[in-house]
Amino acid sequence: MKRIFKKYPILLLVANMVAGNLFCNASTDTPSTPPSVPENSTLFFDSIGSTLKEVEVVSRIETKEVSAVMPLQIMTSAEIEKLGITDMADAVRRFSGVNIRDYGGLGGVKTVSVRNMGASHTAVSYDGAPVDNIEGGQVDIGRFSLNNLSRLTLAVGQDNDLLQCARLYSSAAVLGITTRQPDFKEGRKFSIETKIKAGPWGYVSPYLKWSQKISDKFIFSLDGDYTHSDGNYPFLIENGVETEKARRSNSKIDNWHAEANLVFPFSSRHRLDIKGYFYQSKRGVPGAVTLYNPVSTETLWGRDAFVQMKYRATLSNKWKIQFIGKYANGWSRERETGAQYAGGLWQAEYTQNEYFLSGATSFRATDRLSLGLAQDVMFNNLSYTKKDCPFPARVASYTSLTAKFRGERYELTANLNGVATSESVKTGKAPDSFKCLNPSVGATWQPIEDVEWNLRAMYKKTDRLPTFNDLYYDRLGIRTLRPERADEYNIGTTWLSGSLGILEYCSITADGYYNYVNDKIVAMPSTHNWRMMNYGKVQMYGIDLNAFLSFGIADNLHLNLSGSYSWQKTCDLSDKTASNYKAQLPYSPQHSGNCSLTFSSPWIEAGYSLVGVGKCYYMVQNTAPNILNGYVDQSISVGHEFKFKDWGLTLRAEMLNLGDAHYEVIKYYPMPGRSFRASILINL
Fold first, then answer.
1. Do the Cβ atoms of 160 and 177 come closer than 8 Å?
2. pTM tops 0.90, yes or no
3. What is the three-class DSSP state of 412?
4. Which entry of 425, 467, 573, 651 is 20 to 30 Å from 476 by CA?
5. Domains defined along the chain, listed by start
């Protein structure tokens, strides 16, 4: 520990500063806004923390989404339920500017890239703590459940919360996952929620959540779900000039997920959350369907577990603090049979550990000026069963200093993010230490005082560190790799309208952007095999449009309409002499969009959604044989909640891929056609 403080003195400074704040006397002055409520939270406590209430403040969330300095999109659990969205990847692809890599079916890996910068440039946070994969750099969002979800957020640049971890400031975009808080009916100290979903291809997924109020200042909850499916759905796929009809194979999955939460609402100003998370899966890895051969023999076992603690407190009307501590363990095993392997079998096991500490404080210097300082320290290591494993370990320090100034009709933000890393290996030479200091600035301006119309602009510089696979993978990794350097520019406008007759609410956002990535890490062929290199230069530019309208047709009759559209061009600028110079990168459609319609009444809730993706190329050569056709995926959902004296029952039916579209997100990985699912939810 002494060596860490010696190497990263800023950590010692923050520790001393925060410790001093902890022991200072909290002011008894009443601030102008409730200091215990984070800017991005809808959770409120009474004066002694004895009652936990979940309050849905839809207009507040939407107002924040529209008025944010940096582009921000939000999706609530209510929207997800009404639209019949099936998994996390299906929900995230409703955001504009997002590309999902989906390798087919429930068992396929699913990663998210924002504005075509690559999945490694997108950070994922789970209840405020970052989720990392030091081995490959890409987080499989398919392992996160929707059952206990409260909301999803996608921020380009970073969120507006001054108390977020410094690690999140270092990424080009942040996908935020927030889980539901325990909720109790009046007079009760417990609640139980159970749900079961069923569908074709052997799909069944039971879910159970139990919450208990042990005392006024101690709340416990436990939830878990299990998912099983053989996943062998029928498909149509083009092979040359013919269309092949077959059935997916090796798609069986068995997933277990559980979370335990301890909530300590000590008072309206102090709160401690402790979370335990466990996920285990066994899944067949469906291979590429090529040359009439859909057979795959690869099986993947995975286990991810973490324990995290978050303490947030308001010390006075000027000072707030946050501490986060986390330990995470990831284990995976791959096995594949085939004549191409010695003895007919190939298998490997990988284990990675992460230790994470974060301290953050915000200071309201004046009514207009706020400052934030965050310091994180992260330690990661990796081991695998191959005899040449170098057992790499990395210590990383993230420091973030933020200033926010709010005027009468404008807001300015500036951030300086510092990253320093040091690596060690047991065999060979370790990569050089790395240090960088990256700025970001943003501004929003309301030109007309009484009109909720804003103009905004943003610039941010980030570095994407090489993953352990980039550096150490057998015969592929290069230990002299430099981080990818990215520049983001965004300019946009937002408009928000109040009630106009039956139109209760309307918001529109439009953003144009330009991104440039230098020293992109790519795999390049060498004399005898492929090697990782800093070679690529890529530019991305495009437009994101979002609109939301809410209609109050009559009492208890509401209609919501939302939609988004993205146009993006992603060009390879690596080699001016190459045939693919300025060509569109693989799997980067120029056009994509979605729309949804939800209807709420005392008798029925219904939703319709459409996702459309234009054609793209699956190879670097932008030629006709390399075109991957676009698709339109439609879904409908209907449901009704029956309320009884002490419990509630919700029945819901969903029709997925209504038009039975046969398409691929990744070439030769066909997606499911039309399917039907039903669910039963009981609340006690």
1. no
2. no
3. strand
4. 573
5. 2-683 (2.40.170.20)
